Amino acid sequence: MKKTSIALIILMLSTGAAARVNNGPYIAVRSGVAGVSTETSGYADSKQTDTDFLYSFAIGARARQVRIEAEFSSSSKVKYMSASYLKQRYMLQLYYDVPLNSVIRPYLNVGAGANYTDVSIDRSSGDTQDDGTSFAWNAGAGLSVSVSQAINFDIGYRYVDGGKKAFFDLPKIHMTSHEGYVGVRYTF
């Protein structure tokens, strides 16, 4: 049984017909988990980490080994000290699919855009809200599995630097995250 399974996997990975992927426009949906680090400048021991759930939607286009897409992502609220943060990102992503004649292909990606943060803070005078936008960038890698010429499943990792932003009368807060995600792409 093991030999048969191994033989099927090798056959699948070496089959060029199943490895063809359509070029053209696509949509993508992703979901994942992020380890978020929040650090306030000027405060000793102010770094805190939390787990965040995220989802994203993207539209893009693929030409040969290069994909470019516009991505919107949002996350659950992250608690930090007496505040909670809701983040949304608007990114332009660039992907490079390593040209292998296989149903499984590695890829690299980089992106840049805006990180919008909505902050709620619990003060003695009552809840207060503030929001702001900062420059964000990311870099990552992953694997893409071709199910058909039009459908691909992705599993990936990316480091995201959400930039620095001051809220209320507090020093600047710097948010970074390590994200793991799974997703599906449909090429038209």
List the helices and strands and how they pair.
Blueprint: H1 2-14, H2 16-19, E1 24-40, E2 48-63, E3 66-75, E4 78-80, E5 83-97, E6 104-123, E7 126-146, E8 151-166, E9 172-187
Antiparallel strand pairs: 1-2, 1-9, 2-3, 3-5, 4-5, 5-6, 6-7, 7-8, 8-9
Written account of the structure:
With 188 residues, this protein is mainly β. It has one domain: Porin (Beta Barrel), CATH 2.40.160. 9% of the residues lie in helices and 71% in strands. The protein has two helices and nine strands, in the order ααβββββββββ. Strands 1-2-3-5-6-7-8-9 form an eight-stranded antiparallel β-barrel. A hairpin with a 2-residue loop joins β6 and β7. The mean pLDDT is 84.
Give a quick rundown of the structure:
The protein has 188 residues and is mainly beta. 9% of the residues lie in helices and 71% in strands. The protein has a single domain, classed as Porin (Beta Barrel).
- Secondary-structure element series: HHEEEEEEEEE
Distance N to C terminus:
38 Å
Specify the CATH architecture: Beta Barrel
What CATH calls the topology is: Porin
Features:
9 strands; mainly beta; single chain; Porin; 8-stranded antiparallel β-barrel; 188 residues
